[in-house]
Amino acid sequence: MYKLDFKPGWDVFFLKMDNATQEQIWKKIQKQKNETPARHMRFGLEFYVLQIGQNRIALKTNEKEKIKTIWFVGNHKQYEKWYKEQ
Q: Is the Cβ–Cβ distance between 71 and 10 less than 8 Å?
């Protein structure tokens, strides 16, 4: 079982989404407490990415301490801009 942590500013785009989308994404975030597969963002970065329709969640996993940190939630265009800054 993983503990969830949230990086400050992770919800900038999340808070602007409609309630149904927020609920769908929140359920996906809560599922991260269990070991669920995610794909690497790109080679050389520690981030993992989850897709929910056109939306993305970027997170880092600390296996030693069993913590998953949510860094970003937004649509695919916001995500592309965000990951280019990483």
A: yes
Domain carrying residue 40: 3-84
What CATH code is carried by the domain that includes residue 25? 3.30.2310.20
pTM across the whole model: 0.87
pLDDT means per 10 residues in the chain (86 residues)? 96 96 95 79 75 93 92 94 86
Q: How many domains are there within the chain?
A: 1
Contact predicate 76/82, CB 8 Å:
no
User: Rounded distance, CA 15 to CA 23, Å?
Assistant: 11
Q: Is residue 7 classed as helix, strand or coil in its secondary structure? A: coil
